[in-house]
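Re: beginner question about structure tokens

> Can someone show what the tokenized structure looks like for a real chain? I only ever see the sequence side.

Sure, here's an example I had lying around. Input first:
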Amino acid sequence: MNAKLDSTIANRPVTRQTFDEVLVPTYAPAAMVPVRGAGLDLWDQNGKHYLDFTSGIAVAALGHCHPAVVDTLTRQANTLWHLGNGYTNEPVLRLAKALTEATFADRVFFCNSGAEANEAAFKLARKYAHTKFGPHKSRIVSCLQSFHGRTLFTVSVGGQPKYTEGFEPLPPSIDHIVFNDIESARAAIGDDVCAVVVEPLQGEGGVMPADPAFLKELRELCNKTGALLIFDEVQCGMGRTGDLYHYMTYGITPDILTSAKALGNGYPIGAMLTTSELAQALSVGTHGTTYGGNPLATSVALTVLEIVNQPAFLARVKEASAKLRSTMEKLVADYSQVFGQVRGAGLLLGLVVTDAWKGRSKDIQRAAEANGLMVLIAGMDVLRLAPALIVSDEQIAEADRILRLSLDQMIKAAA
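And the corresponding structure tokens:
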């Protein structure tokens, strides 16, 4: 019998080594393999427990295996999975209504990831500009050190050469400005620009919050030139900063907003939100996706949205955010030889290493993991914390304890 058809294959033992044997090496995952999760708790193949302060890169906003989400997915899995875009379905209609009622948007396009949401946003911006102004208005302006996805289009917009090297020739008519630099924006945004895209809180770029004055200037420049302002809230949206979306914190409304990650709490879904006027540019046949807006994903996302978009829930996120920041600021003060500052917003914080520890954020991450705490990095000089929005004060204190233990061990080893 062909081994690939062996019905027992699902029960075969697999290890971290299996990754190196059968998967394309686009990642270098940790040595341990998580097998079970609940809330912010994870266990690996050996039964070791970890406190998860990554939430799958700001995805599992309600923690692992949230009972309400599991219940929704189970019920929908026994009802209807997929139809194809020749038909609509009830869950997608309910989710679209809920998102438009909760935000500035009138229309939503659903897809499967943040990259696809941004791809749709960029295509919409160009299509709208070509239709209204002509093909000369096609340039897209983004920020250096931003991250908008891994498709060739979105990674080109991202402004990080390490992600585009070797994939040339890249899509043309894309320029980059310095994040939070108003003069850089003024110099770049002219009448030939169809869209300006920005993360109100850069994630991969080092957990950098946008200055209010910078975002205000981008809004005014877009109004002046007829460009569309796109907010990429794939990582910072869906309650992570204490508001449903971060544009609400600033009081600056974009023309297009992209959302994903926490929207499905781990079930793949992305969304592009926009106005009725702009949405008309993507008429029948101009864009699409096979799986986008399927009943499984949209039913899960609606449950997540209904839980997160409650005043009491968001108030607790703000409370937990203040607790995490004050705790981390104390840690930074106590370990000033390692960390120089805390930056970010809400429950997405970055601890920036000092010059003496430059390039060592990955080492700190590994040390913390060895002691049972999962954290992220944002480049080699920033340790990134993105716990689930349901994090407790006790879990914040435990993360602080493990980080301190790990730093003490590293400092002692270096002595």
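Each token stands for a local structural state, so reading them left to right follows the chain. Residues 242 and 319 are 9 Å apart (CA to CA).
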